[in-house]
Amino acid sequence: MFVKVAIPIPKDRAFDYAVPTQMEEDVAIGKRVLVPFGNKGQTGCIVGVTAVTEIENPKEIIDILDQQPLFDDRDLAFYSWTADYYLYPLGKVLGEILPGLKDRRARTEKVAAASGSASSTTEKLTKKQRLLLKILQEETEVSVAGLCQRLGNVRSTLAAIAKKGLARITDKGAGCPLPPCLTVGEPSGRPAANLSQEAALQEIHGNLRTGQFQTVLLHGVTGSGKTEVYLQAMEEVRRRRGGVIYLVPEIALTPQLLTRLKERFGNENIAVLHSGVSRSVRYDQWQRLRRGEMHMAVGVRSALFAPVRDLRLIIVDEEHDASYKQDDRLPYNARDLAIVKGRLHGATVVLGSATPAVQTCFNARIGKFSCLTMPGRIADRPLPPVEIVDMKMEKALHGEKTFTIFSRRLAAAIGETLDRKQQVMLLLNRRGYHTFQICRDCGHPLKCRNCEVSLTQHAREGVWKCHYCDYTLAGELVCSRCKSANIGAYGMGTERLEEEITNRFPAARIRRMDSDTMDRKGAHEQLLHALGQDRVDILVGTQMISKGHDFPNVTLVGVILADTSLNLPDFRAAERTFQLLTQVSGRGGRGDVPGQVIIQTFNPNHYAIQKARDHDYDGFYAEEISLRQSLFYPPFSRLIHLRVSCIHRDKGEEGSKSLAAKARELLKLARVRGTVEIVGPAEAPLFRLRGRYRWQLLLKGDDSRFLHALTRDILGGFHFPGVQVKVDVDPVHFM
Ligand code: ADP
Ligand code: ZN
Ligand code: ZN
To answer: What angle do CA 33, 39, 40 make, to 5 degrees?
Structure first.
């Protein structure tokens, strides 16, 4: 007997191996095996079982690593489709999406101070023990692995204080599939659906009954009750004993959702899949889903690959969110693949958003998706009025030379909101303190050593950091051109905003939410909890604050500078800006008190900003779609992006030109179907990144199959020493 094994190597090939007779019984598609490869073994995945092979001397597999298969034939069909479409080797696809082999050592232990541990026994502790205990008392519960990362191996010290009864070590991983954050939030019960929810559910339930593939766009304004529709649709699926995949952009930001899920469906039936879940738990959950012991998978984009049985429903919440696109390794888009998987399984796919992607809305309008709208908020709460403040006028009126952070309008509104004992959210989509530096003596802008990017000052840590490669400089900055230490720092990130607002409103309780302050596990939950309990007056943050939260006492939302995302070299810049402004506006006025939104901008007449002010999705769509059509951009064309990079500038440039020449040559020879344009090669907007020079070549065409075939031909046999070419099908990020 022979097996076809896909190995994670760049060449897209599966190899035939012979199975030793004593192993034959255990062979099945979906198991991982160890095979001889190179001078070491290699882990691969069985993708076929045959009685004959054309290979002359097939090698034998060494070992079978999984007791149970990780996926079945239909899952494999999906993974193969993914590999084909994204022009990525199947072996590598499998290597990336399958959960890691079971860890030998569970990395899920947690430790917490025991209650009453500040007693007199602490006298007899060593210095190290006392230090650890102090940390535990301050931080409620931390992971043992995390502590060891911070402080070196402290397992024995922890064991010692645990033995004295001062701390508790628990293994939160093994028996508990849901993360401990589930305790945040109050039980909300199950509301009766309102009219528009009822209409949406009728359509979705009708679909579920027929068991036919269908994609449904659920376009509902923020707070219209979309999540409730998802939950009731899931209940319907469970009544029919089917399975569900529920994707969210980021799970740490949605503890309220997990609470609601747990209330409806209990703990036992839901696998929560995201990068914070340990490998062993992920592996267990994957197996339980595949065996049909669990029926629902909730998670970030990678949860789409979970082998849910009898899959009837796939939900993609906030379908417009760019985080459904993975950029490194396998560059897939989980929103698009959800539709492919739905088709393979005959499932209903629900794409939900208050601001659907232009592409999604287009598909709904041409009848590819059915479209359900929920135009009003729950309980007829009004959408908050949005005001635009023109910062050019502000500057002129003030006569200030420096940049004004708060317009008088926004400053006054913050003051009034605080007086009313209500909460404020302030959005600024940039982290750090100062965001760029210029030499005052010679005018040279200071850049990262590895990237063509300004460094960002992080004042509290006392460092300058590159946000692309993590290169970090401590101490005094010196100009790399003239060696002067007379460096001017400018620009504003959330850290500086936090400081400015503290100076301005010293009595307010201010917290910041960005990836700098939220990197500790559980930090989100704690902050959201504090916000829910009115222990925070002003929340400052990046786009993180625009996502999913539902806080009734937030009545003022301020956008410090709407222009940050508007001027990016990306055909979706306007779309992103509109979405961000609409989403963050939707955070206001979700309770009984009406809210208001103030947007500061230097481009008050831009349609993305104006339409966001008017809560006018259709108006935005109309402007945007006609621009896309005139520029032959998606949804009117398909894009494939080829990224060329090299550590040597000359060689890279030569490589990119040679790739482009080959592309044009092949295009000339091919019998072109439809329209194809080749743009470039051009230097990437971030010309140098992590030490590599970068170019891009963009293929635009209106026939996806032809574009794929052309790309395969272009890449086939293309080799330029030292030059790397990466393919990105349907690119989302263009930097
Ligand atoms: P969305 O996902 O569209 O932002 P949610 O489903 O989270 O909206 O609903 C917003 C709020 O309204 C939540 O607190 C939710 O519990 C509540 N809600 C949803 N549907 C109903 C309903 N039919 N009746 C009463 N409250 C509801
Ligand atoms: Zn860098
Ligand atoms: Zn200088």
So the answer is: 40
